[in-house]
Amino acid sequence: MEYTKPLAKLIECFQKLPSIGPKTAARLALHIVKMPESEVNHFAQSLIDAKTQIHYCENCFNMSATSPCEICSDKTRHKETICVVAETKDLMAVEKTNEYNGVYHVLQGLISPIDGIGPDDIRIKELLYRITQNNVKEIILALNPSVEGEATSLYLTKLIKPFNIKITRIAFGLPMGSELEYADEMTLARAIEGRVEL
Amino acid sequence: MEYTKPLAKLIECFQKLPSIGPKTAARLALHIVKMPESEVNHFAQSLIDAKTQIHYCENCFNMSATSPCEICSDKTRHKETICVVAETKDLMAVEKTNEYNGVYHVLQGLISPIDGIGPDDIRIKELLYRITQNNVKEIILALNPSVEGEATSLYLTKLIKPFNIKITRIAFGLPMGSELEYADEMTLARAIEGRVEL
C-alpha cells in the first residue's frame, strides 16, 4: 500500500525542498494532517505571500517586500561602503553580527564554470554601475572561502581595482573557540598567510 | 535588520514543523522564494488538500482519503489478523516490508502516564470492539521497543487474553547487518531472552 493520495502529493512537495529526504518529508506531511486547520491555511497563505510579495531590491538585489529594500532606504546606513555577498542568507549572517553599518550588494550566485555560471550570470554589472554612480569608498568582499568564492573575489578585484577604491576581503582563519591542533591544513595555512601584526 | 516580513512569516511557519530549526527554516523559505510560482501554488494547495481531504478510517484509524481505508476495503487482505501499531507512519513501515497481508489497527498514540496519555486517550476501546465483532484469530503487536510501547503492549495483552485469541509481538533483537560486539546491552539482553530454537 502507498500513502493515501493527498498525503503522497504533499510528501512529494516537501521532498522537493533542499535537505528534505523521503523520511523527513513523510514526517512533516503527517504532522501537517495533525495540525489545526487554521494553522495549515496560514502556512499555505504564507507560502503564496512569500512568493508573490517578495522581489529583489532594484539597487542591491537583496530579497525584499519593498524596492529599494529596507537597508538601501535606511538613512542611517553608510552608503559609501558596500559589502558584496553571494546570497540573501549571507547578508543576513553579516547583519546578525551587528558589526556592519554599510550597505550590501547581493550577487545572487558565484562564478562557477563547472555549473556554467559565468560573470554575466550574476549581478556584477549592476555592482560596477553602483560604483560608477555613487561615491563608494570601500568594497568588502564577504564570499565563501570556496573555489567559487575565491574565483569570484579574484575576478571582482581585477574589475574594481581600476576605480581606485579600497577593496577588502573578510579574514579567513581559525574560527573563534576552535583549537589549533584540530584545524585542517588549509585553514591553518590561510591563518598563517593572513597573520596580523600586533 | 530582520528578514523582510513575508519571509519572516514563512520562516516562522516552517519552524513550527518537527525537526526544523531556525537555520533550516530560513533555508527552506529562501528556496520557496526562488521556486516557480506554479510550484509554490501547488505546494500551498497540497497542504490544504492534505488537511481537508484526509480523515481517519472508521475501522482501523489509519489516515486515509476514504473511509474505510484502502487496506480495510481490500478484499485480498486477511481480516482475521490485525497488526496493532501506534501511528500511520508505523503502518507504512510494516507495509514496506511486503511481508504482511493482514489488516491494521492504528492506536493513534501509546500509553504514557508522564504525558498524561492513558488507555482511554488512544484507540483501545475500538480495537476491543473489532475483536468482539469480527472473527479475529491473531493480534500482532508492532509497537516501539520503548517504555511507552512496552507499557501499551502489556496493557493490551492483559485485555485481549480473555478473548482466547492468539496474541504475538514482533521480535526485538539484533538488527540485520549489525555486529554483536557493537550492540547495546539492552538489545543483546532482549535478543538472548527472545532466542529461537533451530
Describe what you observe in this structure.
The structure is a homodimer of 198-residue chains. Chain A is an alpha/beta fold and 198 residues long. Chain A has 2 domains: 49 residues, RecR Domain 1 (Helicase, Ruva Protein, domain 3, Orthogonal Bundle); 122 residues, Dna Topoisomerase Vi A Subunit, Chain: A, domain 2 (3-Layer(aba) Sandwich), CATH 3.40.1360. In chain A, 42% of the residues lie in helices and 13% in strands. The first copy, chain A, is built from 7 helices and 6 strands. In chain A, strands 4-3-5-6 form a 4-stranded parallel beta sheet. In chain A, helix 1 crosses helix 2. The radius of gyration of chain A is 21 Å and the shape is globular. In chain A, 29% of the residues are buried. Chains A and B meet through helix 1, helix 2, helix 3, strand 2 and helix 4 of A and helix 1, helix 2, helix 3, strand 2 and helix 4 of B.
Distance between the termini of chain A: 68 Å
Largest interface: A-B, 55 and 55 residues
- Which class of secondary structure composition applies to the elements of chain A? alpha/beta
Give the uncertain stretches of chain A in residue-range form: none
Percent in strands of chain A: 5-15%
Provide the number of structural domains of chain A. 2
Oligomeric status: homodimer
The CATH class of the largest domain in chain A, by name, is Alpha Beta
The number of E-state strands of chain A comes to 6
Assign the CATH architecture of the largest domain in chain A: 3-Layer(aba) Sandwich
The backbone outline of chain A, from C-alpha atoms, is globular
